[in-house]
Amino acid sequence: MLLRGSRTVGPWGWLMLLLVAFAAWASKITFELPDNAKQWFYEEIVHGTKCTLEFQMISGGHYDVDCWLEGPDGAVLYKEMKKQYDSFTFTASRNGTCKFCFSNEFSTFTHKTVYFDFQVGQDPPLFPSENRTTALTQVKYCCV
């Protein structure tokens, strides 16, 4: 990121660059789904990994969307029609590409805004070296 009128990246530029890079690694996405359309997403998963798909409608029409999830073998693991929000958790039965789709094909004139989060595996603890048997300080207690 270059600052306007400058050939170098200033301290705020580096901060913005780091924030953009961090956002690119996140699995949370908000996107526009046009009327009479569908959008596919793909994720590589490893056998035995716990995965969770959560989604919610942000705007558009009756706040509903069709959603389905297919495992690496093509089997439909989850399918719901005209849902406002939902969450589905599964454990991968094999290695491969998992794909999921959001469809607005039933709508003829209303586009939608959809938020989803596809979590693969467990998140690391916030404080890995924290010994939970000790008392938390006031600041840590407020953050947990």
UniProtKB/TrEMBL annotation:
Keywords, alphabetical: Endoplasmic reticulum, Membrane, Signal, Transmembrane, Transmembrane helix
Keyword Transmembrane helix: yes
Domain of life: Eukaryota
Membrane topology: Single-pass type I membrane protein
Domain GOLD: 38-120
Keyword Transmembrane helix included in the entry's annotation: yes
Single GO cellular component term: Golgi apparatus
A Pfam family it matches: EMP24_GP25L
Signal peptide interval: 1-26
Record localization: Endoplasmic reticulum membrane; Endoplasmic reticulum-Golgi intermediate compartment membrane; Golgi apparatus, cis-Golgi network membrane; Membrane
Family: Belongs to the EMP24/GP25L family.
Protein name, per record: TMED7 protein
Lineage of the organism: Eukaryota, Metazoa, Chordata, Craniata, Vertebrata
Encoding gene (name): Tmed7_0
